[in-house]
């Protein structure tokens, strides 16, 4: 048995205040005997305007992440930090282009342009830090939330976010092997089918909107737990962040049979919930109903049968 904690908070645009909240939650989690704490998407920053996210971006080696690495080390605790605004490194410039642009710059006496377009976007990165303070996994959110929510706000994540292209698993945490995902990814079950093959615990740090959270959050999380036969740990933002933005809350931990073990509800003061997870239960559920073994090469095969050989299958962004 290993005790894990899920944290719930209301981030603002003050990185320092957000850090103080996270540090308090980490201390509480440690005192409750947890060796792992999951904190939600935007744990470090949530702004009012998308431009602020770009301005807030830092590399994984920057001051914010250094602080969280020290926090993990201080408490000897693993941290899952969903949704860090990571600056997109400039693309390596090919020698030929480099020479040309340098010459051009010298001619016009202008500074060499430094991959400006890449600076204007961030990655939405979910980071896992070990108890030694080492970054053990970094997953850059693949599915971007460009949605005009009925009865809610319009969010255009791709305006300021560059989509990731790779999935990520961290296979040696005290809470078992971890499959990393973030928020809107939750609506793309094929991703979890893959993560489930490689992990015992699936992480879904989020900042779900209120209307979509009410309608879908718990159902989707329980479905992902049932389909993957893995624990699901979903940390969530809650409440009003600023005039424009509010989140649904209900940080959940779900077991591999789909049972909700903890639910932080819509509690607005920062809080944690802790649960003892029983990793052998993952194998037990998988042995009892071996759906991985029963899986057929269903996706491409069925789509072809249904739509014909020349099916215009939309290619995922992977
Ligand atoms: O923009 C940021 O600051 C960080 N990113 C987020 O909060 C993202 C994109 S706006 N939110 C979601 O994916 C909500 C998904 C959701 O609510 C649903 O699927 O229903």
From TrEMBL:
Boundaries of each CN hydrolase domain copy?
A: 2-279
Region Disordered, residue ranges: 88-118
The GO terms this record gives for MF are: hydrolase activity, acting on carbon-nitrogen (but not peptide) bonds, in linear amides
Q: Which UniProt keywords apply?
A: Hydrolase
Keyword Chloroplast on entry: no
Q: Which domain of life is it from?
A: Eukaryota
Q: Which PANTHER family match?
A: DEAMINATED GLUTATHIONE AMIDASE, NITRILASE-RELATED
Q: What is this protein called?
A: CN hydrolase domain-containing protein
């Amino acid at each position: 048995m290993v005790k894990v904690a899920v944290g719930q908070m209301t981030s603002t645009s003050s990185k320092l205040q957000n850090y103080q909240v996270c540090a308090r939650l980490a201390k509480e989690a440690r005192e409750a005997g947890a060796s792992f704490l999951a904190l939600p998407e935007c744990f470090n920053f949530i702004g009012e305007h998308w431009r602020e996210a770009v301005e807030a971006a830092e590399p994984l080696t920057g001051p914010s992440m250094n602080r969280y690495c020290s926090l993990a080390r201080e408490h000897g605790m693993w941290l899952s930090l969903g949704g860090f605004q990571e600056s997109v490194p400039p693309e390596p410039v090919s020698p030929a282009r480099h020479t040309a642009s340098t010459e051009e710059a010298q001619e016009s006496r202008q500074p060499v342009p430094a991959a400006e377009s890449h600076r204007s976007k961030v990655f939405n990165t979910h980071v896992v830090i070990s108890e030694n303070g080492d970054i053990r996994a970094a997953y850059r959110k693949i599915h971007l939330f460009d949605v005009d929510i009925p009865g809610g706000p319009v969010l255009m994540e791709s305006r300021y976010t560059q989509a990731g292209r790779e999935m990520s698993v961290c296979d040696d945490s005290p809470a078992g092997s971890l499959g990393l995902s973030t928020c809107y990814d939750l609506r793309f079950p094929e991703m979890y089918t893959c993560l489930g093959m490689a992990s015992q615990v699936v992480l879904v740090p989020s900042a779900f909107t209120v209307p979509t959270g009410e309608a879908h959050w718990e159902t989707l999380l329980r479905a992902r737990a049932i389909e993957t036969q893995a624990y699901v740990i979903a940390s969530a933002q809650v409440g009003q962040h600023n005039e424009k933005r509010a989140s649904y809350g209900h940080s959940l931990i779900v077991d591999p049979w789909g049972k909700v073990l903890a639910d932080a509800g819509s509690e607005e003061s920062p809080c944690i919930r802790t649960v003892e997870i029983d990793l052998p239960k993952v194998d037990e559920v998988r042995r009892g109903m071996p759906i991985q073994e029963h899986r057929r090469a269903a996706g491409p095969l069925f789509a072809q049968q249904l739509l014909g050989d020349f099916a215009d299958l939309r290619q995922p962004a992977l």
